[in-house]
Specification:
By secondary structure, this protein is mainly alpha-helical. Helices cover about 75% and strands about 0% of the residues.
Amino acid sequence: MKAVFKTIGLIILFLGIYLLMQGAATLAFILPAAFARGAAFTQESMLALSGQYINWIIIVSAAVSLFIYWLILRKNPNKYIVKKDFAWPGLAGFICLAAMGILLNLFTESWMSFIKVPVLPGQEQINQMLGQAVTGNVFMATLGVGVCAPIIEEVIFRGVVLNKLRMYMSVPLAVAIQALLFAVYYMNLQQGVYAFYMGILLGAVCYVTKSLTAAIILHIFVNSTSVMLSALVTADIGAPVYVTLLIVSAVGLALLIPAYWRMQKKRLAEPALSEAENVYRQ
């Protein structure tokens, strides 16, 4: 029981560090802007300013949090995330993961276009703020939402959280709980539904491939595709196009997933780390 509480505390610590850095970065960017513009300190004005600096906030908070994690992990990294988890998948593996990330985004956006998630009271402005993260400067959006956010989120949720939960429960339950925490972390119903779905998929990818790097690469290309689509597609493309994308992306994923799995079986057949070094192998 003591170990369980220690694990819960560790999860709260890693999440808390990132949330604290997000809060600090938000204040660091929006307070000077608010004073310079003479803006009133209302919820509406603060959310509007946060939306303008959202990618800077993501980049800075992710960078500082990762540095703090490194300070925590450097003395005993295998206690939290093992080195093997960050093994490079090879050029062919990278290309396959990149293609799967793009297709997974198209597949997800297509089927979610037919589902109307209700907007809870008070969340409309938050949704607008989050939407600015992918509709602003393409370079900053790609760096923030496309790269930095996936790296920090995978380290936290599929790295530390999933690794630790796997020590005390079954794989399906551990994957489901970390996905639920990932959804709650967004504190937004619409984003939460998407995050829970992606959390399940990325958690499964981590377990099946025995690699956190695979989940990071997949997540980066899923998010980056959203940024690019937001820049290129400015109007509703309609149900027929979504249905076509759904079919094409489903076929593409059906072809790529087995191909990538064959690559993984070859990689996993090589001399492996011990069970103590990689809990994903349990």
